Structures are given as structure tokens and as C-alpha cells.
Amino acid sequence: MYAVIATGGKQYRVTEGARIRVEKMKGEPGQQVEFGDVLFVGDDDGSQDKLPPAAKVKVVGTILDQTKGDKIVVFKFKKRKMYRRKQGHRQLLTSVQIDQVAAAKAPARKKKAASKPADEEAKAPAEEAGEE
Length: 132
Known about the structure:
This protein is mainly beta. The protein has a domain at 2-65 and 95-104. It contains one helix and seven strands. The longest helix is centred in the last third of the chain and has 14 residues, at 118-131.
């Protein structure tokens, strides 16, 4: 089973055991993280029947490390105006290993106590007043 998750403004296709590099997330190496925004769930053979809806799938991973990405150069230039600006950037990244892609457990529902409906209580005093 695989899932498509969204984090850091990007989408990732993940399976159990996959390692991905996402934009920086809060947490220390070894800490468990849960991805709440699951967009799609699929099966490796392409079948869609008997799969839970994406809203009920839980994706859990472990943070491996916090690193920086490769350096990129941002260069702005306007010809014949002597305008040049050079700037570098290194994106902060988090390496995550996906541990589990599974259906989440449904929350337990609370049972309401059996009580009289509100209409029956309202009718009872009105009937007594009309009989007198």
C-alpha cells in the first residue's frame, strides 16, 4: 500500500520503509512524527477496491536527521544598468523514514443515556392543564 502525503508545500508518494527528505520539521532524531495530510491511498497493483478513504489512513515516520540541502545561487542582473546581486541559499531539510502506512483506528463513540424525548415532556403538563 502507498499513500500521497503533503508536507512543507510539496507532495510525496510514500510506502513503508521509504526514506524521504522534506522541508524542516520540528523534532529530534529518533522521534516519531505523524503526517496528518494524506491526499491519496493506493495499492501497488493498481486496484482501488477495499481501500480505506484517504482521510482514515495514518502515515507514521521516524526522524533520521536534520540537515541542509545543496547550495543554490540566486543571481539578479539587469543589463546596461550595472545592477548585480548574488545570493546563496541552503534549504533546511529533515530526513524521515516511513514506518507505517495503515488505516487509523476509528475513535470510540460515546453512548447517550436513554432519556425521554423533549416533546413528550412538554406535552405532559399541557394535557393536564386542559383537563381541569
